[in-house]
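During the reporting period the student researcher (J.K.) took over the structure-prediction task from the postdoctoral fellow and processed the backlog of single-chain submissions. One of the processed entries is reproduced below for the supervisory committee.
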Amino acid sequence: MISREHLEELNKQCAGGAKEYLEQQIQYILLPGLRLPPACTPNPVDALLCLGARDNYPTRLFFATQIAGKSGLNWNSSNVVILERNWFAYSWKDVTHDGRPLEVLLNHLKALA
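J.K. obtained the following structure tokens:
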């Protein structure tokens, strides 16, 4: 489980209500209305931060829809069902799995900047 302090940090990045879930032994944090870097569309968007290893990545950031941004991304995961919803993710391995959940999230968002 992540601490209340870490959830509060994540709440500042989204519309609020960040909530932790566990599904198939993998820890996720739902981020409703996550604010993305400027020039991203749609913005905000629901996101799901996976803090553990999944799909040969140390961590993953899933989105409720594909995001258009400044540069093209390799959307290599489409319609992945987690928590009874479909999610999308781009390939991004320049993320450390160490540190606070906020740091993991911000590293994932670098691909959109």
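The committee noted the following: Helices lie at 4-11, 101-109.
J.K. will present the remaining backlog at the next meeting.
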